[in-house]
Design brief:
Layout (H helix, E strand, L loop, with lengths): L8 H11 L4 H5 L4 E7 L20 H9 E4 L2 E2 L5 H10 L23 H7 L3 E7 L22 E5 L11 H5 L14 E3 L2 E3 L6 H14 L6 E6 L12 H6 L24 H8 L7 H28 L6 E7 L23 H4 E2 L1 E4 L8 E3 L3 E2 L3 H9 L23 E6 L2 E6 L2 E4 L25 E4 L15 H18 L4
Parallel strand pairs: 1-8, 1-9, 2-12, 3-13, 4-5, 4-8
Antiparallel strand pairs: 2-11, 3-10, 5-6, 6-7, 9-11, 14-15, 15-16, 16-17
Helix pairs in contact: 1-5, 3-10, 7-10
Length: about 500
């Protein structure tokens, strides 16, 4: 048996214990269904529930979540890229507890439980639809990182950073010399323990169809569904025609191995050459890149609307907790807008780690509320387990339930990403981060940070969310205090998970 599939007795025992740890009053209540929706690389300003959102966007269904629930203006992911941030989100822990190099590929240790494992032990039906990415062991069924091996009963999706939106068939994979890249990826979707080919259809629509089909069949027990869209990740220009028409932008031909020339060091005819060509500015210019992004986002929002409508039609909306979050900040190269935040994906500037987030649960979460306290994606696991009536005993969980009143306004929050790091306590943030991204130049929406070196930078985020005024030189005492807090956290917690 593959070493990553071993069931550790202590972990299994813990799962059984957790499944019985609901209080009597909770057990008498009907457990809520739980829907976790994750977008990919969504810009901070590209979320219309926020007061100062971009005037260009159209996300009325994200507004529905805000109207029925709560939005968070200072929600943070645990990393500025997808793989580690999703590890943190799904475990309730800063993933650099076990991945001390703070890399792209933290993986998922056997001994670290996921949301799905907690809920499955508590009697939930569990499913994941869409993107599954822990930075390692891609395209494999027999690894811990594959959803069916960490708590999910059902999976339809892909195991990689990205997937083509249109080319989801076995035939397209057969014609492609390199169908299984880590980002440049196309072909049939993983479907439980086999593959499912789609000769037609758009990937965002396919995921929505599968989600609706799933919860229509789950009437006999509560369900936990993770709906992890790859929208609005590259390849951003691949959008149904009606959205291209709306934003007045021309379609770009889909990948064809007979027509794509070499790009960079990629071989002629490869999907990687197509992917690399259209995921940077050059073949697509700034104005059009933004339009493709807006079209892709609009399509995503319409699909979220389809999900919300189906929940209501099935009579599930009143007893379903919905959490919505982006996996990291908007990308510098897709046309995403993070204003007023500096930089974006790939860095620990605010634009890389502060993201759109909303929670809706009728009768349990105050409708129309704007939460301005800073929170973490690690809070999602304890929030969900709290809603399900599960008592957590793991002292290394870094998150807190968002269903309980927040009284600590000086919560310590830390980040580690490669050789950069950041720490926040109250309004104060200290970081050595720099600009960190590749693939040519950023799009016109990118807000350039004030520094591109690894020097220490101190910001008061309450007064300066865009991190434009570095206070490090004039407040050395605060720098020392925060640096000590970060170092102390690392010495006490790294390697403990």
């Amino acid at each position: 048996m593959h070493k990553s599939l071993r069931i550790i007795p202590a972990v299994f025992a813990a799962l059984l214990l957790l499944s019985c740890s609901q209080s009597n009053d909770k057990a008498e209540q009907k457990q809520p269904n739980i829907l976790l929706i994750i977008s990919d690389d969504q810009g901070y300003a590209d979320f219309s529930p926020f007061e100062n959102h971009s005037a260009e966007i159209s996300t009325p269904n994200m507004n529905r979540l805000a109207e029925s629930g709560m939005i968070f203006t200072q929600a943070y992911t645990t990393a500025p890229v997808c793989s580690p941030s999703r590890a943190g989100l799904n475990t309730g822990k800063f993933q650099f507890r076990w991945d001390e190099k703070a890399s792209w590929g933290p993986g998922l240790p056997d001994s670290v439980l996921t949301i799905a494992e907690y809920l499955k032990a508590a009697g939930y039906a569990t499913a994941r639809i869409g993107k599954s990415d822990y930075g390692t062991n891609y395209h494999k069924f027999n690894v811990r990182e594959y959803p069916l091996n960490h708590g999910y009963d059902h999976f339809l999706g892909f195991s990689a950073h990205a997937h083509d939106y249109w080319l989801n068939s076995e035939e397209s994979a057969k014609r492609t010399p390199d169908p299984n890249g880590t980002s440049a990826h196309l072909g049939p979707l993983m479907w439980d323990r086999e593959y499912k080919s789609y000769d037609e259809g758009y990937l965002t629509d396919i995921f929505t169809d599968e989600a609706i089909s799933y919860f229509k069949t789950k009437k006999d027990q509560p369900f936990f569904l993770t709906l992890a869209y790859n929208s609005v990740h590259h390849v951003i220009h691949e959008v149904p025609q009606k959205y291209l028409d709306k934003y007045e932008v021309k379609p770009i031909h889909n990948y064809d191995p007979d027509s794509i020339e070499t790009f960079g060091n990629q071989q002629p005819g490869s999907y990687a050459a197509y992917y690399e060509k259209y995921t940077r500015l050059g073949a697509i210019q700034d104005e059009d890149m933004r339009k493709y992004y807006l079209a892709n986002l609009n399509c995503l929002d319409d699909n979220i609307g389809r999900v919300l409508d189906a929940l209501k039609a099935e009579g599930l909306d009143k007893n379903t907790l919905i959490i919505y979050i982006s996996d990291n900040g908007g990308s510098p190269i897709t046309g995403a807008l993070n204003a007023p935040l500096s930089a974006g994906k790939y860095s620990l500037w605010e634009g890389g780690i502060r993201v759109p987030m909303a929670i809706s649960w009728p009768g349990k979460v105050e409708a129309g509320k704007v939460q301005t306290n800073y929170v973490s994606a690690t809070d999602i696991l304890p929030t969900i387990t709290d809603a399900a009536g599960i008592t957590l005993t793991d002292q290394t969980i870094d998150g807190k339930s968002l269903l309980k009143p927040e009284t600590d306004q000086k919560r310590l929050m830390v980040w580690k990403w490669g050789n950069t790091w950041a720490v926040r306590k109250g309004p104060w943030k200290l970081t050595n981060t720099n600009e960190s991204w590749g693939k040519g130049r950023p799009s016109a929406q990118y807000i350039k940070p004030i520094s591109n070196d690894l020097s220490l930078k101190l910001f008061n985020l309450e007064n300066d969310p865009g991190e434009r005024v570095n206070l490090a030189e004039e407040m050395p005492g605060k720098v020392e205090e925060l640096q000590n807090s970060y170092n102390n956290w690392c010495s006490e917690n790294l390697g403990k998970y």
